[in-house]
DNA sequence: TGACGACATCACAATATTCAAATATCGTGT
DNA sequence: ACACGATATTTGAATATTGTGATGTCGTCA
């Protein structure tokens, strides 16, 4: 039974939305809806500074939207599974929308280009 | 040239998320997922000042999340139909989640109480 | 018309967010 | 151990967002 005036759902959902409420971060999520990527990919695909890329990823990670995995020198990010029901449904809907019709156009093209033969090298 | 990297979808979706990325505003949306309400309802159900209520509703309205209708002295708010595909899917999923399992607990109870026999009187 | 209630907006201080450049950290190869 | 590349964090200044109280606007009813 919910006790506080604000239920957990609303609290965590607003947290999620706040993280997604930034164009750059949403573009990151959109790219991630196609699969795991490492930091350098976001830098080149989105044309961000290294510092900014890292920080936005940090915000998303803090909000539980993404999770990181280290592989050698590189850190790979992927969408994190959501525990809260509302968050889960929202992220799933978002990913589905992004995966279906490519909402990213040039971002994805740049990404694929940079993913060429040997990415991250 | 300006890499116009961001598609319309991403831009409008981040706008939506930004508006939803606040606990108070999300509680408003949650209440609205049950139907149309007038300003005084939010005030009492959420325990907000009149000024704050009005401003948060203004933010939501500005973001295209809600729309207003005047009826005599009162102004009624309801969720606005979304044009962009992504926004539409997201808001629908959110409303469905809120409508199903009451994510609001006390907010709704307070609301129903204040909605008694003759609301807004 | 004037008074009142509902709602919107303004003004202000507090707090938070933004970005880029500089700096720090961590893993890898030498 | 050292140097280097990849990523993270800190810094600081500009900007945005927040909530509150005061004020403005609009509609209603007498």
TrEMBL record, chains A, B:
Alphabetized InterPro entries for the sequence? ArsR-like_HTH (IPR011991), HTH_ArsR_DNA-bd_dom (IPR001845), HTH_MetalResp_TranReg (IPR051081), WH-like_DNA-bd_sf (IPR036388), WH_DNA-bd_sf (IPR036390)
Does the keyword section mention Transcription regulation? Answer: yes
Query: Where would I find the HTH arsR-type domain in this sequence?
Result: 5-101
MF GO annotations: DNA binding; DNA-binding transcription factor activity
Keyword set for this entry? DNA-binding, Transcription, Transcription regulation
**What PANTHER family has UniProt attached to this entry?**
ARSENICAL RESISTANCE OPERON REPRESSOR, TRANSCRIPTIONAL REGULATOR, ARSR FAMILY
Its recorded name reads Winged helix-turn-helix transcriptional regulator
Organism equals: Myxococcus xanthus
